Amino acid sequence: MLRCVAYDGSTRYATKQVPGLTCTPLSQPSQPPVHAPESIAGGQRGEIYSFDIDGVHRFATSLPPGVAVQNLRVIRYTFIETCFACGASDSEFRRLRVNREAYAPEIHAAAQEFGVEEALIRSIAHAESAFVPDVISRAGAQGVMQLMPDTAQRFGVTNTLNPAQSIRGGTQYLAWLIHRYPGHLDYAVAAYNAGEGAVDRYQGIPPFPETQRYVRRVEQLLAAYRGQP
What we know:
Layout: E1 2-5, E2 11-14, E3 22-25, E4 44-53, E5 56-60, E6 70-80, H1 84-87, H2 90-95, H3 104-114, H4 118-129, E7 135-137, H5 149-154, H6 163-180, H7 185-194, H8 196-202, H9 209-226
Parallel strand pairs: 6-7
Antiparallel strand pairs: 1-2, 1-3, 4-5, 4-6
Helix pairs in contact: 3-6, 4-9, 6-7, 7-8, 7-9
């Protein structure tokens, strides 16, 4: 995407150079850290535009023709039906490899701040998004830790697609759940998937097939991440 400035100072946006206008590329979002995967099995790539028109902030899947917009930003995302561990087939899950490099500084910092085991944070991130930073699920969960908007707001996350914010907020939520269910890490994991209300209602892991599969697979990941490299 190019930002083009006319002689009268007005601004337009285009996908290619426009004769008679001075066009420069828009700055792109920062690239994911090294070792952060850029795709997830079954994910569908998409993008939306964030911009202002006459002082009103808008989001759209295409730019309005013939209208000058300000503060244009292209937001790229990966759509998934459900979390990675919830949707992956048994064969896909058996083939997975642990990833101890993705977001290592962010995960270490969050573990230190909230007293949560790094292996558990990494297991949840792997189960939720396979470490892909721009994932959005059909339910509306977002980012590396797949935070729902209400949960993100609750734990001070203002940009759910920012890996550092997502990891910090998700770890804070994990710490809160672990404290809520002392001695029952499996309840905390189930609550991360289904919500603490469901765990409280059933006084344990809810009988939802997705949640039960999620808990089993997080346990598998946790065993792998606790092992030696």
